[in-house]
Here is the input.
Amino acid sequence: MKAVWYEETGKASDVLKTGTIDNPRPLKGEVLVEMKSSGINPSDVKIRAGARGELQYPIIIPHSDGGGIIREVGEGVDVSRIGERVWVWNGAFERAFGTCAELISIPETQSVRLNENTSFEEAACLGIPASTAFYGIFADGNVKDKTILVSGGAGAVGSYGIQLAKWGGAKVISTVSNDLKAEEAEKNGADLVLNYKEDDIINTVRDHTNGQGVDRILEVEFGGNLHINEKIIKKNGVIASYGSAAIMEPKLPFYDLMFKGVKIDTYLIYIVKKNIRKNIIEGLNKAMAEDALRHRIAQTYNLDEVAKAHQDVESGVMIGNVVVKI
Here is the structure.
């Protein structure tokens, strides 16, 4: 099969190789998926660059997300799944061979039936971005009639966060960094969009909510925004955070948060519990079946352009998801 891989960490142009390797075969409990798309997430480029330490495997095919068609099944898997369109999650998490190849053999639970109205390119956005957003919005229960703040509402996760919160019946405030991203957040359905570089976030949110603040916050930058969030979160509110790159070791205003009963929910989508994963999968499939999600794909590439795709993800200028077509 044709695939992209690396055998050492470093710059994308230096270490990523494209060529032909042996086809995988499905083991017991696995399915063999013919990949049609592979999603590139920030974590993929960071691991390839060496941010997570030395390689765990001699050869790594990158990327955890993707979409494709089941072509074979291993022992114990219902043969009726052959021919099924699926989206794949955790393809490269604690595994050597991810989705950036023509074939992947993976546990059948990690290949989910794909809605007929969803393209393979869109399927490559579900495993990390959409799933991260779903957990952050709904982990503390339903959001009907609540007010949610989505940080970074034009980003891959934030975009889904706004849409899922609106689908759940919430009012949504979102923060962005420029006018172009503000337009994107508005397209996603945000009721109020604020520029965190220019606007008075605290007072504007208080005015917009009649002094009440927000019930939940989906946060991409926990440390950098904590001084704002502690002032706009309601009593017994939740800050669900999946990142804190700017300030990795934030100073926590413990008593200010404690006296408001604020719950801080830090999470890593790769390792959520099985029952939570089940809820995420069922929820995303339901949202797609109800045509509630707009999938924002910034750019697509082919297998021979994966190094360029990694570089573009690293640049931080892409608005939406970056997908490799296979």
Summary: The chain has a mean pLDDT of 97.
